[in-house]
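// run 5 | inverse folding | seed 20
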């Protein structure tokens, strides 16, 4: 049975929370990858920045829905959620647009579990951690390459 360590990419391209969004976008495009792990100075995983996070910056700001009852304004959407949306749209650095606390897998996680996680959570990039140390990264392309080579069975 194939596991994360068999299909992961070991040469990991990372960014820091202070990296400018433009630089992260260039790295994603230059290396034809969907996501970059965001690490602090000690190398600890803090989040992940994906193409989807950068595309989020281009969407229109949803106007909050509300209704008035007895002269009180009652919101139908969470202000916190709207604040998060605005923060992502206005991001200049990775820390404002990244997904914090990303889903991760261990080196021994079976291929089937990795594929299930990606589908269930609609994610394209999974960091591989061994005792809180990042040892690799798996993208959907890694899974497809494994399946196409006949090793996925």
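// decoded
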């Amino acid at each position: 049975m194939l596991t994360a360590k068999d299909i992961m990419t070991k040469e990991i391209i990372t960014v820091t929370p202070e990296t400018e969004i433009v630089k992260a976008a260039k790295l994603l495009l230059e290396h034809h990858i969907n996501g970059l792990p965001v690490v602090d100075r000690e190398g600890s995983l803090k989040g992940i920045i994906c193409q989807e996070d950068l595309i989020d910056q281009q969407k229109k700001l949803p106007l909050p829905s509300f209704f008035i009852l007895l002269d009180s304004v009652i919101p139908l959407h969470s202000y916190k959620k709207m604040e998060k949306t605005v923060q992502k749209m206005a991001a200049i650095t990775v820390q404002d647009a990244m997904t914090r606390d990303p889903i991760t897998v261990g080196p021994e996680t079976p291929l089937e579990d990795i594929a299930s996680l990606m589908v269930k959570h609609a994610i394209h990039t999974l960091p591989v951690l061994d005792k809180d140390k990042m040892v690799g990264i798996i993208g959907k392309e890694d899974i497809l390459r494994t399946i196409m080579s006949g090793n996925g069975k």
